[in-house]
Amino acid sequence: SRPSAGSAEGYLYCAYTAWPALLHAAVNGRAVHGRRGDVDLVLAGPGGRDATAGEMTLVREAAQLIKPEAHGLTVLRATRRTYDVAGTVSVAAGPDAETVRAEAENRIRAAATDRLRIGAEVPRALLEGAAYGLSIIRGDLASPAADIGADPYTIPVMASIGLEVTQ
User: Cα–Cα distance between 90 and 51 in angstroms, integer?
Assistant: First the structure.
């Protein structure tokens, strides 16, 4: 069964149906922005990229069909909050340092991808902890210097990763 018109679930259903490649959408109402009767539908494209004008139009037109007359609807691009990950990993003697470094980067990339959602926080400790695996003695990140804070209109996107290896 379809969600009811004007509900958060209804707007999300319309967004994902109109644009199947949509990475993530968020519905922000009065509790978030303080405006009575207004709904902000926030969109993020695949990989956290900006939604194109055409993609936003598809979603806007679909959502207008279920929007109650008394609601104001705004379709917005999520603001990209990009961050870089850089640091060092200490590797135990023996294993190929390059292989161990690449595995640590892949684990960090996976952790960052799991947080690729509108309104998500990216704790620095999550990224640093993701570096650990077999043969990693210690992982120290210089960047990001602090947690990437949560914001209901923002999507945290890892822009680059670079780890140095010490033995």
Answer: 39
